[in-house]
User: Fold WAT1-related protein from Quillaja saponaria.
Amino acid sequence: MWKKALPFVGMVMAECAQVGLIILSKQVMSKGMNNFIFIFYSNILAALIVLPASLLIHRSERPALTFSTICGFFLLALLGYMAQVFGYAGIYYGSATLSTSMLNLTPGFTFVLAVVFRMEILDWRSSSSLAKSLGTVVSIAGAFIVTLYKGPALLMIPSSSNLSHQQLMLQQPNWVLGGFFLAADCVMSSAFLIVQASILKKYSAELIVVFYYFFFVAIQSAVTCLVVERDLSAWSLEPKLRLIVILYSGVFGYALQVGLSTWCLHQTGPVFVSMFKPLGIVISVVIGVVFLGDAFYVGSLVGATVIVIGFYSVMWGKAKEVDNAGRSVEPIGQKTPLLQSSSEET
Assistant:
């Protein structure tokens, strides 16, 4: 029973860690911390944490590093770095609820990019392809709703009660800008997943790939900081809130979250892991309303619901595709469990 329950607990912890990272990073960046410097500190700390674990776990099976592999790691880090830059910009202008809602666009954009680069076959006669296509369109429609429309407040703190109905109907310009930054984050994340899948087929040591990812992102962000931010005082970790948030982001927001997600993925498969992504919306709403005094609006509820419906449609199509592929290669009477997948599919 414990073995069956642990993946559920692990994914809930991973989603809580991600929402915590979104909320805390918004707090320090709203107080003046440069997002490029925040990315550097977080990734270099995560790299130092992952390095000993990667050397220990992959000590017996460590594929040889070639120049092309290193270039692949650098490209993977570049895509991940751009995703982080856009993501933190979106968090700064938006909210935790908007961020967690928009992150569910990633599977749909991944499907679109896979079709564009001919890594995915679009067959209109297949129910799985139709589900993924329809789910992508629905998710994008939900993103427009949650970004452009606010509506009346469902849960609102007293200090927000002075806002007029006209102010509540349409989102403020910063919120819209945050939504577009988060959409760009999802596109970069989708490209990241495609490149990552290609790399893992050739280099199967996952934690070593994760270490190089963090390491190269830290280098890229450091170079950006030296060009963009000339004020050395911007690197200061005062007040102490900056240090606390960076420690949280490196340990929990990056290393622990990636570790838990990877472990759960190996135990149950990618579909199971993906099913927990919409949970972040619920967690962010609860934390935002109860602890931060944020308001929760009808537009956020409707848009997030539409995005989640599209998300599950895409995931259902992918799960059905994997399940059908498993049945086609197995003897009659044997079935591949829905929530399991081969390492190559992972």
